[in-house]
Design goal:
One of its GO terms (molecular function) is 3-hydroxybutyryl-CoA dehydrogenase activity. It holds the Pfam family 3HCDH_N. The protein is built from eleven helices and eight strands. It has an eight-stranded mixed β-sheet, with helices on both faces. Helix 1 crosses helix 2 and helix 1 crosses helix 3. The radius of gyration is 19 Å and the shape is globular.
């Protein structure tokens, strides 16, 4: 199935980033959230990013303008009728199982029978969302990475009920979006986060026990390990609240100490220091 219209549920960093990728690659996008003003700000931010990319010569001005025209917004997150005719819907709201379950239950009611229903969850059990939809065979995980317009990887996550047709439709959508895909079963953390989270937690332990400064920990990884970004800066980019939620899901599933959120991470989240999105995490951002 070739997708022409896609609904994106959630206008935060991930949702708006996925919307930008989809619009740039020729899809008509409906971006949905709880508040119209929030949706409008997200679309304005997408258009500003597209304009900057054009100014830097990375894309043409014509492509940026065309992508901007493919974006529309809606605040009907309760009834979701704005995405009823979309061939695919990608949910990218907060990592809260109750919130996501409510959305998938409604998507199952309003979407066209053959619609591909995808979640961008990075840690929650996809099978629960599939069951809530009432059409589990058409539910799949499409885990994009932050920021979606810069990082091409998508983890394609199948549940026990995902059909081969659904998997192929999801892979076709990712090809339309020019993404690199890896396939994985429905397990907390999938591939990348299951490897990344313990690495970040080891870096946090080094910081909280006074072994080294945040700057030197990240410098060692960038220069010594040839990483593009250090683990603490990566945590700030992910969002410390999101990182904590991912860890809690994995710790509940696996019970392994390496997935338990360090004390310093929990304290920063409690203080509202969530990383780049709040201007402060392990580092300060202006």
């Amino acid at each position: 199935m070739r997708v022409e219209k896609v609904g994106i549920i959630g206008a935060g960093l991930m949702g708006s980033g996925i919307a930008q990728v989809a619009a740039y690659h020729g899809l008509d996008v409906t971006l949905v959230d709880v508040d119209q003003a929030h949706v409008d700000r997200a679309i304005a931010a997408i258009r500003a990013r597209l304009e900057r990319e054009a100014e830097r010569g990375r894309i043409s001005a014509e492509a940026a303008e065309a992508a901007s025209h493919r974006l529309r917004g809606s605040a009907d997150i309760t009834d979701l009728t704005s995405v009823a005719r979309a061939e695919a819907v990608i949910e990218a709201v907060v990592e809260d199982l109750e919130v996501k379950t409510r959305i998938f239950r409604q998507l199952g009611r309003v979407c066209r029978p053959d619609a591909l229903l995808a979640s961008n969850t990075s840690s929650l059990p996809l099978s629960d969302l599939a069951a809530a939809s009432g059409r589990p065979e058409r539910v799949i995980g499409l885990h994009f990475f932050n920021p979606p317009w810069a990082l091409k990887l998508v983890e394609v996550v199948s549940t026990a009920s995902t059909t081969e047709e659904t998997l192929q439709d999801a892979l076709q959508l990712c090809r339309q979006l020019d993404r690199v895909t890896v396939q994985v079963k429905d397990t907390p953390g999938f591939i990348a986060n299951r490897l990344l989270v313990p690495f970040i937690f080891d870096a946090i332990e080094l910081l909280q026990t006074g072994v080294a400064s945040a700057e030197d920990i990240d410098l060692a990884c960038r220069v010594g390990l040839n990483h593009a970004m250090g683990p603490l800066a990566t945590a700030d980019l992910i969002g410390l609240d999101t990182l904590k939620a991912i860890a809690e899901s994995m710790f509940e599933e696996y019970g392994e100490p390496r997935f338990k959120a360090p004390t310093l991470l929990r304290r920063l989240v409690s203080l509202g220091y969530l990383g780049r999105k709040t201007g402060r995490g392990f580092f300060r951002y202006t």
